[in-house]
Write a structure and sequence with these properties.
Blueprint lengths: L11 E6 L4 H14 L9 H4 L1 E3 L5 E3 H4 L8 E7 L5 H8 L4 H4 L3 H5 L4 E2 L21 H18 L4 E6 L16 H9 L8 H11 L4 E3 L9 H9 L3 E4 L6 H14 L3 E11 L2 H6 L2 H19 L5 H4 L3 E8 L8 E9 L5 E9 L2 H21 L4 E2 L22 H15 L10
Helix pairs in contact: 1-15, 7-9, 8-10, 11-13
């Protein structure tokens, strides 16, 4: 069914939580360079991917649906450190100084607002640029004021809020998360055990009519309370956890094994990472949040209850090790024990020397661009079609998440085609 999509007129303010982090500064630098014609938006589905339409031709996605122009994006955000985006990017050491200098003036102009932060949720970080909030509700009100002020000062028509900050400690789903009334009550009563800072950002964004994208595995907008609120406010929410490196490989390899009906007896995954994200994940409470996200992937793809002979007893282990010398250049190893005809065993070993933020930056940008599109198309609540970009796709209790990368890509294309009133071509897509 064709959607009535509002045009992408005016400016889109993109407020990033963790605007001084490695992912955020890499995304911002690349976007600024791309719109000056100094770099290509490589890795961005919104900018570079094509789709086959009913006319039998391949068209750029940005020519099919009205996406925001990169020139109309204004960046801002919050961070627990006061460094401007240029200083922060230099500290992150993801991009070379010569590349940062291409857009130095623009980066210097991006100065973070004080962050809503609770040291108990990220004990390895000691923020110096933080808000003083008496309660979680006060934290929300301050964030809402920040959003309104940024929107007015930068003459923005719309805002999107992106979490690109560190992984918080593991918070299990509680009664306070199961209804909007219970969530608001817990915020006003300052229940800091169950209300995380990320929930305050999400609530503030939704309250201000801004899509919220969760780029970490935190329990945040994946709760009944936030689903209720996002539908009430007609705002899209998306997440969670950018699917950038090792998990991206899993969502490609696991469907291959299943399609060929090859069995898997074990999958051991380990990483070394030296950036701030790696430091935070060195804390067991924070790693548990990430571990839950990473472990969920292959079970969903393999469907062991349907194929017990092949996947009924898979030993799946995930480890992340903080190793400062490697900085943002994460290295991932996978050892996969598979078996084939007559049960004979085989092994596959994958060594992925990746750049964490280089892979995550276009994902973050695409999630912002497509969430803004969803807002203008009148879509609200969980955007399951954006599962393609996430390790742990959000879903309600009535549905199972889709992890298979190729099924997720079909979901993206089907949604975009529906927006413009087209159906998939009758031949192989």
């Amino acid at each position: 069914m064709k959607e009535n999509i509002k045009p992408a007129t005016g400016r889109l303010g993109v407020l990033v939580v963790g605007v001084g982090g490695a992912v955020a500064t890499t995304m911002i630098t690349g976007t600024l360079a791309a719109r000056k014609g100094l770099a290509k938006a490589i890795g961005s589905i919104a900018q570079m991917a094509t789709m086959r339409m009913q006319d039998g031709k391949e068209h750029l996605i940005k020519d099919i649906v009205p996406l925001v122009d990169l020139n109309d994006i204004v960046f801002g955000g919050w961070d627990i450190f006061a460094d401007d985006a240029y200083e922060a990017a230099m500290y992150a050491e993801v991009l070379k100084e010569k590349d940062l200098n291409l857009v130095k003036d623009e980066l210097k102009a991006i100065k973070p607002m004080p962050a809503a932060f609770d040291h108990n949720f990220a004990k390895r970080l000691n923020g110096t640029h933080i808000k003083n909030a008496a309660t979680r509700w006060d934290m929300v009100e301050q964030l809402r004021e920040d959003i309104r002020t940024f929107k007015a000062n930068n003459n923005c028509d719309r805002i999107a809020v992106l979490w690109a900050a560190s992984t918080e400690i593991y918070v299990p789903l509680a009664e306070e998360h199961k209804s909007l009334a219970a969530l608001e009550k817990a915020m006003k009563e300052n229940n800091t055990e169950v209300i995380s800072p990320s929930m305050c950002y999400a609530y503030a964004a939704i309250a201000e009519g801004a899509p919220f994208i969760m780029g970490a595995p935190n329990l945040c907008v994946d709760t009944p309370a936030m689903w209720e609120f996002s539908k009430k406010m007609n705002v899209p929410i998306a997440g969670k956890d950018f699917k950038s490196g090792q998990t991206l490989m899993k969502t490609v390899l696991a469907p291959m094994f299943k399609t060929r009906m090859l069995g898997v007896s074990g999958w051991f995954s380990t990483n070394i990472l030296g950036n701030r994200d790696g430091e935070v994940l060195d804390q067991p409470e924070n790693f548990k949040t990430k571990e839950v996200s990473k472990l969920s992937v292959i079970d969903n793809i393999f469907e062991p209850e349907k194929f017990p002979d092949l996947y009924g007893d898979v030993y799946h282990k995930v480890r992340i090790n903080y190793y400062p010398p490697r900085k943002d250049n994460k290295e991932a190893w996978d050892n996969i024990d598979i078996f084939g005809w007559m049960g004979y065993p085989m092994e596959i070993k994958v060594n992925f020397l990746c750049r964490d933020s280089i892979l995550a930056a276009p994902i973050a940008l695409d999630l912002v661009i497509f969430s803004d599109l969803a807002l203008r198309a009148g879509m609200c609540g969980i955007q399951t079609w954006l599962s393609f970009f996430c390790k742990s796709p959000m879903h309600d209790f009535e549905h199972e998440p889709v992890h298979d990368l190729f099924q997720q890509w079909r979901m993206v294309k089907e949604t975009l085609r529906n927006m413009v009133g087209e159906t998939a071509p009758s031949y192989l897509d």
